[in-house]
Amino acid sequence: MSILGSPFCKIVREVLVELELPHIFRSCARGSPKRQILFEKTGHFQAPYIEDPNTGVQMFESAEIVEYLKATYASS
Ligand SMILES: N[C@@H](CCC(=O)N[C@@H](CS)C(=O)NCC(=O)O)C(=O)O
Hints:
Blueprint: H1 7-18, H2 34-42, E1 49-52, E2 57-60, H3 62-73
Antiparallel strand pairs: 1-2
Helix pairs in contact: 1-3
Glutathione binds next to α3.
């Protein structure tokens, strides 16, 4: 099955899977009411967006998210 999606979200999801990090994925496809929910929460809509309940970190920007996940969860 092929699913078209954001290439920016894809690289973040790949790192979440690679690091075997349990996560909840909330799709914000065009037309999804979750877009408005994210906008109301952050004042902005952009995907990907991550919230880490372990650290309280909330961030946009795929490259920064990948860097954060690797720095926080990759074992050396
Ligand atoms: N520089 C950002 C770009 C992210 C981006 O452009 N995301 C698109 C989805 S692919 C987006 O949220 N666009 C706003 C919209 O769809 O309204 C990153 O690397 O995360």
